[in-house]
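INTERNAL AUDIT FORM
Audit reference: QA-55
Scope: verify that the stored structure record matches its stored sequence.
Auditor: D.O.
Record contents follow.
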Amino acid sequence: QVQLVESGGGLVQAGGSLRLSCAASGRTFSSYSMGWFRQAPGKEREFVATIIWRWSGRTSYADSVKGRFTISRDYANNTVNLQMNSLKPGDTAVYYCACAARPGSEIYSRSNDYDLWGQGTQVTVSS
């Protein structure tokens, strides 16, 4: 069964940190770009970060999180992580892990470029 399962969300004060993890199974994920998106209440889902496949490891971030968030991959455990530091109340959202629809080394920042999604994990940042 192909699936993504997120974990690590929770409640944190502004300025704090959280680490999200996404466990992947059922596909050769090392050949696909992986991304994190988020959706706040009443807003559209937005791109957060992406990391491409094994031999390049290139990353891309939304301007709103650049310098505060870091995306990484653990190929041995087939997981994708999102380290979030200096959190702000504006980071409050449900965070989703996603796998690109096509294998390769492209940077994808549109949700339409991803075809497999996790169930989401809630991140709440209090002021």
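Auditor finding: record pair retrieved intact. The two ends are 40 Å apart (CA to CA).
Action required: none
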